[in-house]
């Protein structure tokens, strides 16, 4: 019985490799909060990923609990920040964009479902202060009942 | 002249698959599927001047309190499942019931929450409101153009939005049950 030729195996694997290289995106930040985002059915998809920046919100993970306590924390990039630092963060994100895209940037709020609205209202206030009005509540997809 | 015909040995490509697999696994681990979706919201700009006066009947007041209960028009406690239906009724009233909106274009939803309201409850309410608007917009699109709202060209979408604007205004939360 002749052996199966594996000469085209590299081609197949390379094809897979290129597929994953194009459709995926590098993990940029390590999430430092416990995150279980709520589910919603009426979602909008964002096509241009470059416009999005993230604000994470939740309790610090078990590993970081000893250092940061159990209160709700705000994380951007790789650090916890205070509410009052948000306008400065928005400004740096805006500075990364070319001029014509500066007012199209979107803030994606990835918040744990258990977080209270008080802190979220404060964040919204800070975003308005920074004149950053496009806010997306990041959710997972839920298939609607009907 | 002696070495005119030297044969070049083939490069062994047997390990190519291994190298490619290694790269593939590396990318599988370090990358994430891009999956950015959520409820898009446009915040109001910082306050400039007096807010416009809106007739009482054109405003649908929804309060989500610190116990995640929903109170509509200051008097009816409502289940989450009934909210979308009631919102649709409110918007499409067209002046029939004197407590509900005059026309879809005039209807405003006023959403208020406490500082102790959970984010989950808030998102669920937002989702129901959007569900109501999306359903009505799809209905109107079907009636006028015979296609769903998402399938229409932008010029036609604008006309639908004009007839059925999604006006959800959010009031400052009350300081109930807030810990931060």
| Average pLDDT score of chain B | 85
Beta-strand share of residues of chain B = 15-25%
Side by side, the strands of the main sheet of chain B go 5-4-3-6-7
Largest sheet of chain A: 5 strands, mixed
Structural class of chain B: alpha/beta
From the N-terminal CA to the C-terminal CA of chain B, the straight-line distance is: 89 Å
Largest sheet of chain B: 5 strands, mixed
Quaternary: heterodimer
Measured as a percent range, the helix fraction of chain A is 25-40%
| Shape estimate of chain A | extended
Unreliable sequence segments of chain A:
none
Largest sheet: spatial strand order of chain A: 6-5-4-7-8
Rg of chain B, rounded, reads: 28 Å
SSE succession of chain A: HEEEEHEEHEHEE
Coarse morphology of chain B:
elongated
Distance between the termini of chain A: 56 Å
In words, what does this structure look like?
The complex is a heterodimer of chains A (146) and B (180). With 146 residues, chain A is an alpha/beta fold. Chain A is built from four helices and nine strands. A five-stranded mixed sheet of chain A has the order 6-5-4-7-8, covered by helices on one side. Chain A has a two-stranded parallel sheet with strand order 2-9. By secondary structure, chain B is an alpha/beta fold. Chain B has a five-stranded mixed sheet, covered by helices on one side. In chain B, strand 4 and strand 5 (76-78) form a beta hairpin. Chain B has helices at residues 16-30, 80-91, 119-145, 154-163, and strands spanning 31-33, 37-42, 59-64, 70-72, 76-78, 108-113, 168-170. The longest helix of chain B has 27 residues, at 119-145. At the A-B interface, helix 1, strand 1, strand 3, strand 7 and helix 4 of A face helix 1, strand 1, strand 2 and helix 3 of B. Strand 1 (24-26) of chain A pairs antiparallel with strand 1 (31-33) of chain B.
């Amino acid at each position: 019985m002749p052996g199966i030729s594996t000469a085209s195996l590299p081609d197949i694997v390379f094809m897979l490799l290129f597929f994953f290289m194009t459709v995926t995106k590098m993990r940029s930040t390590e999430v430092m909060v416990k995150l279980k985002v709520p589910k919603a059915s009426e979602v909008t998809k964002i096509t241009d990923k470059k416009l999005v920046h993230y604000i994470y919100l939740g309790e610090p993970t078990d590993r970081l609990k000893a250092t940061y306590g159990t209160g709700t924390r705000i994380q951007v990039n790789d650090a916890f920040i205070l509410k009052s630092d948000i306008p400065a963060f928005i400004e740096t994100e805006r500075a990364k964009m070319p001029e014509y895209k500066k007012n199209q940037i979107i803030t994606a709020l990835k918040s744990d479902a258990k977080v209270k609205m008080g802190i979220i209202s404060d964040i919204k206030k800070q975003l308005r202060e920074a004149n950053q009005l496009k806010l997306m509540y990041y959710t997972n997809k839920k298939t609607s009942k009907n | 002249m002696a070495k005119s015909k030297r044969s070049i040995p083939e490069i062994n490509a047997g390990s190519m698959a291994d190298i490619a697999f290694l790269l593939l696994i590396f990318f599988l681990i370090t990358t994430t599927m891009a999956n950015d979706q959520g409820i898009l919201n446009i915040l109001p700009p910082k306050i400039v001047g007096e807010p416009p006066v809106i007739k009482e009947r054109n405003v649908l007041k929804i309060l989500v309190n610190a116990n995640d209960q929903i109170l509509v028009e200051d008097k009816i406690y409502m289940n989450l499942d009934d909210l979308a239906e009631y919102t649709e009724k409110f918007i499409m009233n067209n002046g029939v019931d004197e407590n509900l909106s005059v026309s879809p274009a005039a209807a405003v939803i006023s959403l208020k929450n406490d500082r102790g309201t959970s984010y989950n409850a808030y998102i669920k309410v937002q989702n129901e409101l959007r569900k109501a608007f999306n359903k009505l917009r799809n209905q109107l699109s079907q009636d006028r153009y015979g296609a769903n709202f998402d399938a229409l060209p932008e010029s036609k979408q604008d006309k639908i939005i004009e007839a059925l604007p999604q006006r959800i205004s959010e009031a400052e939360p009350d300081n109930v049950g807030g810990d931060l």
